[in-house]
Amino acid sequence: MDQKSIRELEHKINTDYGNTTGVVVLKDGKLVYEKYFNRCTRESQVHVYSVTKSIISILIGIAVDRGYIQSVDQKVLDFFPGYIVRKRENTIQNITVKDMLTMTAPYKYRFFAPYVKYFTSEDWVKFSLDLLGGRGKIGTFRYAPLIGPDILSGILVKATKESVFEFADENLFSPLEIHVDGDLMFKSKEEQLAFNESIDTSGWVRDSLGIHTAGWGLTLSPMDMAKIGQLYLNKGIWNGKRIVSEKWVEESTREHSRWKKHDLSYGYLWWVNEDGYAAMGDGGNIIYVNTKDKIVVSSSALFVPKIRDRIDLIKTYIEPIFR
Fold first, then answer.
1. What stretches in the chain show pLDDT beneath 50?
2. To which H or E segment does residue 322 belong?
3. To 10 degrees, what angle do helices 150-160 and 124-131 make?
């Protein structure tokens, strides 16, 4: 390993990516680099924000593989037979699980999502369902950061008869030796803000009804994230055991929709690029998988606004060292 390049990389991280808490690099399935910053260690977990979405994608895939969910073409409302559709609301009835996974479902709010009402609502799934549909067109990419993805958590609970955490722990976390403590709930805005800054909190946020978040709210370490990336690079196999089908891995990491404004390709809650795919969350949290060079890079970070692009850091400073 080129120590000069490593020093340059770590100088770059400390100088321009100062909110980073850890970086792990795997090459051909082997650990080739591991470094922690900002008082963190291998055991430190942080809130990985939208990386949570890609974990939900894997769980949906496992549920499909095992027959809990018949197909991604199932209608969302198939899972919520008791949900009362408002008058003159027809769009929601045609939205599928696939539309949710590809961020091509429309919502009734246009520019400013009602985050305060969302966070103070007791039932985040129903709150999201109430905003789903409207006059927008199904099939047009619309990224939903927080409000909306929880519907997928609701679907998992309805389909598997388990909590999202229980299903994840049994079918994904435990096989990969990923430890997440359990449920997290916030009694105040201050508790939530403290969670976003914590380096020693482990868990998965849920609402007051016990439904875990799908668009945010999970804590992981860089090593945890690297394992997820390697699982996908292995086409769904971990230590010789099939965790999720190769078909789902391939289907979820190919382009299904595109955010034209930013020229970004999207799979099933995974971002897709020319070299592979990535799970990305606010602050610079990322699981990056280069399928050509068999490299997995994971990086965890604390939230700061207007962060520098981690893909640029990976392509310019990390991949050249380990390719």
1. none
2. helix 319-322
3. 120
Cβ proximity of 153 and 211 under 8 Å: yes
Q: What is the pTM of this model?
A: 0.97
Task: Tell me what pLDDT residue 109 has.
Answer: 87
Q: Which two tokens stand for residue 162?
A: 């388990």
What pLDDT was estimated at residue 87?
80
Instruction: Give the torsion through C-alpha atoms of 197, 199, 200, 203, to 10 deg.
Output: 70
Distance CA(243)–CA(40), nearest Å, equals 30
Q: How far apart are CA 180 and CA 203, in angstroms?
A: 5
Q: How far is CA 58 from CA 46, 94, 115, 213, 245, in A?
A: 20, 24, 26, 14, 10
Instruction: Say what the pLDDT of residue 1 is.
Output: 67
pLDDT in tens, 284-295: 999 999 999 999
Which among 278, 269, 281, 282 has a CA at the least distance from the CA of 105? Answer: 269
Angle between helices 150-160 and 51-65 (to 10 degrees): 30
Residue 21 three-state SS? strand
Joined together, the tokens standing for residue 289 give: 């998988």
